[in-house]
UniProtKB/TrEMBL annotation:
GO MF assignments: broad specificity oxidative DNA demethylase activity; ferrous iron binding; oxidative RNA demethylase activity
Keyword set, alphabetical order: Dioxygenase, Iron, Metal-binding, Oxidoreductase
GO cellular component, one term: cytoplasm
Residue ranges, annotated region (Disordered): 29-73, 122-145
This protein's name: Fe2OG dioxygenase domain-containing protein
Length: 414
């Protein structure tokens, strides 16, 4: 898999590039109706901030706001002032210009790593005592990495507080339930080898909840969520964890262990593997039902997934246009598909034949959607230009305590 960012030299040039409207794609549903894909990119702020070379829009960060705006972790500089650990050195707010109020700030001073946040979880095996937090004597690269493991859900205690609900709240939940019951899966043939299964997970009412909870549990343990970076030190705008095998953005290759801390990636849960199998089967049923004489199995071959990349995007998360091509040459040649599941907030997903956002097509991936791209579409450029806040199903948030943002799982066969 190759994840390369589009490099643009200045904010001005990036903004002007982005002001060009991308093409809207027509949806072709199984019934043959033409639908217009819902668009979201136009609604997002067009500015860029920070020093990341990225094609994607960001909300401007104003002075005096959070040091780590958008990270979903440190919401206010006050968090640092009020931190209870005596040895934690507080950052100097004056050092943080609006420009630096980006995730690059988050990674540098040790104090950020050691300050305890509700969502940064210390890996189980090496839970540090408050006294040792901030002490330099026990630091090691492995420990640093463990300290950064990230909880995609609210802290357990907080998540399990049972509040007395008002009648209004109960009625609202009933309405949500009723809405949820109406959700019907729909398959959309985006292009040869690329099929979108809308609401695929939602019709199995506990699937989304199970996936989020499982990823949460795996994500806080060894081999769990961390913020990956490229060789040049630039950080990706997401948290990542790998299952089965580890993908390393620095070497752009797979391995059995992570280079950052030597941890082995957790195994892919059996339930996830079955889910991939069912999604591919469902795409075959759909293709076979269309009387176009397509050979479903060659358009979207079956896979035995042995690796999965799990990404968590907060509301400022994004991923530049890239191809997934670090899997085995034979897998790529055979067009073995990437099978992707989305949960939580909606993503604006871009895809096309070139690494050019102006030529890319755009589709919204909502919670419960599955996307398959294999065969002739295995080498498409794709990426996530934005996450649309407050679009996650309420029931999913209530049942899992998932943080604002989006969880995405992409399964592949090495
Ligand atoms: O989040 C997504 O929808 C895409 C993720 C992706 O392309 C990747 O992990 O390679
Ligand atoms: Fe990808």
């Amino acid at each position: 898999m190759l994840r390369s960012w589009l490099i643009t030299s200045s904010v001005a040039s990036r903004s002007s590039r982005f002001s060009v409207l991308r093409r809207r794609i027509p949806f072709f549903s199984s019934s043959g109706d033409n639908k217009t894909a819902k668009m979201s990119g136009q609604g997002t702020p067009g500015g860029f901030s920070g020093n990341r070379a990225s094609p994607h829009p960001r909300k401007p960060v104003s002075a005096g706001k959070s040091m780590c705006q958008g990270d979903g972790v440190y919401k206010s500089p006050n968090v640092f002032r009020n931190a209870k650990y005596p040895k934690t050195v507080m950052p100097q707010h004056s050092q943080a210009s609006p420009e630096s109020a980006d995730e690059s700030t988050y990674e540098s001073p040790n104090v950020f790593r050691y300050a305890k946040s509700p969502h940064t979880v210390i890996a189980q095996r090496s839970r540090a005592s408050p006294e040792s937090i901030g002490s330099n004597t026990r630091r090691s690269p492995q420990r640093d990495a463990e300290m950064q493991h990230f909880d995609i859900c609210k802290a357990k205690d907080a998540g399990h507080v049972i509040l007395k609900r008002s009648l209004q709240a109960i009625n609202r939940e009933k309405r949500i339930e009723a809405e949820r019951a109406k959700i019907v899966p729909q398959h959309i043939h985006l292009r040869p080898g690329m099929i979108l299964l809308k609401n695929y997970l939602d019709h199995d009412d506990q699937a989304c909840v199970k996936i989020v909870k499982k990823c949460r549990d795996l994500g806080v343990g060894l081999g769990g969520f961390y913020r990956p970076g490229y060789r040049d030190g630039a950080k990706l705008h997401l948290r990542m964890m790998c299952l089965g095998m580890n993908w390393d953005p620095q070497s752009r290759s797979y391995d059995s262990k992570r280079s950052i801390d030597g941890a082995e990636p957790p195994k892919i849960p059996e339930y996830f593997i079955e889910m991939v199998d069912r999604a591919i089967q469902s795409s075959h049923d759909f293709l076979n039902a269309q009387s176009h004489g397509v050979n479903a199995a060659s358009e979207v071959p079956k896979i035995s997934p042995d690796l999965c990349i799990v990404n968590f995007y907060d509301n400022n998360g994004r991923l530049g246009l890239h191809q997934d091509r670090d899997e085995r040459e034979e897998s790529l040649r055979r067009g073995l598909p990437v099978v992707s599941f989305s949960l939580g907030d909606t993503a604006t997903f871009l895809y096309g034949d070139q690494r050019d956002i102006n030529k890319a097509q755009e589709v919204e991936l909502e919670s419960g959607d599955a996307l398959i791209f294999g065969g002739k579409s295995r080498h498409i450029f794709h990426g996530v230009s934005s996450i649309i806040p407050n679009t996650a199903p309420k029931w999913l948030i209530e049942e899992t305590g998932m943080l604002p943002g989006r969880l995405n799982l992409t399964f592949r066969q090495y």
